[in-house]
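for the writeup, i need someone to sanity check this before i put it in the appendix. the sequnce is what the collaborator sent (i think, or maybe the updated version? ugh). structure was predicted straight from it, no edits. if anything looks off just tell me and ill rerun, i have time this weekend
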Amino acid sequence: MSAPASRGRFIAFEGGEGAGKTTQSRLLADALERLGIAALTTREPGGTPGAEALRGLLLDPELDWGARAEALLFAAARSDHVEKLIEPALAAGQWVICDRFLDSSRAYQGGAGGVDDDDVLALHAIGSGGLLPDLTILIDLAPAESAKRAKIRDGNASDRIGAKDEAYHAAVRERFELIATDAANRFVRIDGSGDPGDVHARIMQAIVPLVEEA
């Protein structure tokens, strides 16, 4: 009888619009596979059929959700995501690389939307058992560069949250900084400037301790 697989590692990418999280998630998963570590990429909101359906509602520019409704919908999407994809993959020994997770709710609906952080955490405890990443990579990028990249990515078709004003996104950035400072044991800040290869190299240096433990 073969021994059960050891639990995988859970890494989340966080940061503002245009920071390069999706690109870096893919690059990291590819690098881990080359090291012989089974890894999958996923995203929030999304990752499962139910969560992807909620993503469509949350990002639809025709819908006007308030911050509290957003927090509830994100928590519901995350609950489905954790139960049906993230936890089974981790239990099977896979590494999970997620483009956004809990801290995005804390920064967007909390920091910019005004929902109390304790309420966001309570929803997460109820819906997802309080699951936290083993490592959260915060990609930090100057606001002007972030806006420029988001514009190139989206053109004139920004989603409902990406299209919010400069003050909103400044509040998001400020809250990410606060969360990362308060949870320094699971956060690493990565300079997001330069080309994707440069940023990826910084990330690979940051995950060495996790890889060595695997």
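Residues 67-91 form the longest helix (25 residues). The longest strand covers residues 135-140.
thx in advance!!
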